[in-house]
Specification:
The protein is an alpha+beta fold and about 160 residues long. The protein has 2 helices and 6 strands, in the order βαβββββα.
Length: about 160
């Protein structure tokens, strides 16, 4: 398998365009966040928030690389790879692709944490979610680790 599964598809909207005529940096995160949400829904067996009894997630960290610009109405899609997880955390790696030419437009790595919305506290993943994460992790082990995974911001060349 060359890449992770598609989690989200969209077109670049007028309100996302900045003064330079391409998508503003904040909205790359917007698009990738929709892929995070789709992934979360997937590991919850397709159950929506009303069925999850407050067992959700929060994002602790996010790192994005802007690689190729996208412009108004460009169709894009996001692939999502589960890099790692434990009892209460996960790391996802998103790649945003331009549909028209297959160009990688951005990457976004996020660290999430299991969170109970009712009690407003961190918790362990509930059983079904923990099992789905383990199954997904096993499937994604066949994927290459993205070259940008685990990188922070630095001035020196890597």
């Amino acid at each position: 398998m060359n890449d992770a599964p598609r989690m989200h598809e969209t077109r670049i909207k007028p309100e996302w365009i900045d003064e330079y005529g391409h998508m503003n940096v904040a909205h790359y995160v917007t698009v990738c966040d929709q892929a995070t949400w789709a992934f979360w829904n997937m590991v919850n067996g397709g159950n929506g928030m009303d069925d999850r009894d407050g067992h959700e997630y929060i994002i602790l960290e996010s790192h994005i690389n802007y690689i190729n610009e996208v412009i108004l109405d460009d169709p894009v899609y996001v692939t999502t790879q589960l890099i790692a997880h434990d009892d209460k955390r996960f790391i996802l790696f998103h790649k945003m692709w331009r549909e028209t030419d297959g160009a990688l437009s951005a990457t976004n790595e996020v660290k999430g944490l299991a969170f109970n919305l009712k009690e407003r506290r961190i918790e362990n993943f509930i059983g079904d979610v923990h099992e789905a994460l383990a199954k997904t992790q096993k499937e994604h082990e066949a994927l290459d680790l993205p070259e940008q995974a685990g990188l922070g911001i630095a001035l020196k060349r890597r």
